[in-house]
Design brief:
5-stranded mixed β-sheet, 5-stranded antiparallel β-sheet
Length: about 325
């Protein structure tokens, strides 16, 4: 017996000295390391296949299952190529159920198996408190019901990488003038190219031709004066908002007016909401390209041209700035 006690003390002292404990391995990689299959090497780092059955705890308090390098930002880091996470299966009785689970914590995640609950089976989380739970389903487009045989098949929200701020100079906007009764009304030169301010790709998921899109976005248009001073002379800009899909114009919101009063900052913030019928628009099964182009048509910017603070310089390279700040797109198909 004394021999076993001595061996145990030596083993414990050795592990404490190394500050690492290994179970089924003499080569622990962290503070506490379990090798489930006893297949780790005696020296060196276990391979990805060998790590698949390992559990580790790091000095920073992270737990890794299937990996010996859990991310330091995670309390638990799971890694597997052929296994998932099986949540507890709970039969919620209502969206405010607080009896099935006693004092459920805010953020608690479960899998509901009660199909009669509004929303049906699936993953739910408690968005309320432990005393007043509010169970919300972690939903996808598959959970959105069809209306009049239409169903939501594509959904896109704002992404800063899809937005491009467009900047146009005085010479790009002031071309042929005196085109109407107003002596300073000008149209852009024919050489000016107006490009998209927002661009996305989306997929089509049904073979039918009946489809429409709901699209909304917020945008900002601003003008630059000398010394960034307030506007000396009132002026205006008329522009179109054009929607292109796969290089074809599908809709145009024409003749939008940007009125720029005297002594103003020359900034316009606006939002638009559209429902666009796409029944006669041919779509690809994937990678359809939607572009929003805000296209100046005519202006009286020339009214405010000059050389003083508050005027537009005829040499101004950034007279007009166009930027989309928010965006939402939904495609509905039969």
């Amino acid at each position: 017996m004394a021999k076993y006690i001595t061996y145990f003390i030596l083993l414990l002292w050795s592990n404490l000295y190394r500050s690492q404990i290994g179970i089924n391995t003499a080569n622990p990689q962290t503070m506490f390391h379990i090798d489930g299959k006893k297949d780790n090497p005696k020296t060196g780092v276990p391979t990805t296949i060998q790590q698949a059955n390992d559990i580790v705890f790091t000095s920073s308090g992270s737990m890794g299952i299937g990996t010996i390098l859990p991310d330091s930002s995670a309390v638990m880091h799971l890694k597997s190529e052929n296994k998932g996470v099986l949540l507890p299966k709970i039969s919620l009785q209502s969206k405010t159920d607080k009896q099935t689970i006693t004092k459920p914590a805010n953020g608690l995640l479960i899998y509901n198996i009660n199909n009669s609950l509004q929303g049906g089976t699936g993953m739910y989380y408690n968005s309320g408190t432990s005393d007043t739970p509010a169970w919300y389903k972690v939903a996808s487009t598959n959970d959105i019901p069809e209306y009049n045989s239409y169903s939501l098949t594509s959904l896109r929200s704002f992404n800063i990488n899809d937005a491009v701020t467009r900047v146009y100079s005085y010479s790009q906007l002031i071309g042929n003038c005196n085109i109407s009764a107003h002596p300073n009304e000008c149209i852009p030169p024919t050489t000016t190219q107006f490009d998209y301010s927002y661009r996305i790709t989306f997929n089509k998921n049904k073979i039918g031709t009946d489809k429409y899109a709901i699209l909304s976005f917020d945008y900002k248009i601003s003008t630059a004066t000398i010394d960034n001073a307030i506007i000396n002379n009132g002026n205006w800009l008329v522009y179109d908002i054009e929607f292109n899909i796969n290089n074809n114009i599908v809709s145009t919101y024409a003749d939008v007016v940007f009125d720029i009063p005297q002594a103003s900052s020359g900034v316009k913030d606006a939002g638009k909401f559209y429902i666009i019928d796409l029944s006669n628009t041919a779509l690809n099964s994937s990678n359809n390209v939607l572009e929003i182009i805000i296209k100046p048509k005519r202006s009286i910017f020339k009214t405010n041209a000059g050389n003083f603070a508050g005027n537009y310089s005829i040499n101004e390279k950034k007279l007009l700035n166009i930027k989309i700040k928010d965006f939402s797109f939904q495609l509905f198909e039969k």
